[in-house]
Amino acid sequence: MVFRADEAARAGYEEVERYLIPRHGETDESQRKRSKNALLDIVDSLGPVINSYPTWHPLVCNHDNKEPETTPSKQCGYEGLDHTRYFVHGFITCPYGDGQKVIDSVNALPYHPAATITAEKLDVQLYNPQATPILVKCDWNKPFPMDRMIPLSIAMPLLLEMEIPKWRRSQVAETWETMRYYFLGSPHGSRSSLFVSQETGQAIKKIWEALIHTGMFGPIRV
Length: 222
What we know:
The chain is an alpha+beta fold. It folds into 2 domains: about 5-140, no CATH class; about 150-210, no CATH class. Helices cover about 35% and strands about 10% of the residues. It has a 5-stranded antiparallel sheet. Strand 2 and strand 3 form a beta hairpin.
């Protein structure tokens, strides 16, 4: 099936609006309107709604696990996440209580050379009137193209920093068909996603295939 970014982004937004905007009867209409406007502003700032991140993304790469991480979690250094939805350049989490655990854990994340991760409380109602919505943002250190896609000059070194050291313990090399979910994020197509363009995805694929054919990770898994 052909990957259509606009359709994927639209479907993602509709799902998140249903999930995060309080229902009729839970709050008054003026609050619901404020919540919808705030959500639209967040999408405008952080990019489309997504299901999972590329494993090299700064929001999920802070861990020592052998298995890849594709969504923010305790394994990546976050505490107190609950009722969470993801965007290309950040996420919203809506824990009950004051949400301070989330903010403190984000502030304690280690330095990342490509981006700064911040957290702030939002002054609108999302998910439930009793929850405290927290916005976690990934502010990239270098400017992006107009389309806000992550350029190859950033995506590739982050991917290589994560994958190259694995040659020490790897027994087999995984093909692009297996790895594209981890390298492109989801939703994705054969060589592109809401994170990277077709051109960038094609370059990542080409470089990955060149790496596995060196034999550095072991024989290619068929």
